[in-house]
Design brief:
Helix content: 10-25%
Shape: globular
Structural class: mainly beta
Radius of gyration: 13 Å
Largest sheet: 5 strands, mixed
Oligomer: single chain
Order of helices and strands: EEEEEHEE
Length: 79
């Protein structure tokens, strides 16, 4: 388990990174108030990082509704 640590993306010209709240094996966890989707830059950044998670789990307060915790799977790559 890694908590609040940089996950680098060395695929571009400049080294960039994202910082998930937690990482367990190949799953990133993000605790937030905001609903996030695959098109959210932060989520895309997690998938583009060098550790390449298989899913990102979004955890939101229960008071925000039925979809307070959900997983976004890694998108399939085009062949």
């Amino acid at each position: 388990m890694r908590v609040n640590r940089r996950e680098n993306n060395s695929s571009g010209g400049d080294l960039t990174y994202r910082r998930p709240d937690a990482r367990v094996d190949d799953v990133a966890f993000d605790v937030t108030l905001t609903r996030k989707t695959l098109s959210t830059p932060q989520v895309r950044g997690f998938f583009d990082s060098d550790f390449r998670p298989i899913r990102v789990v979004i955890i939101r307060p229960r008071q925000l509704g039925a979809d307070h915790t959900y997983a976004i799977p890694r998108p399939e790559t085009k062949r």
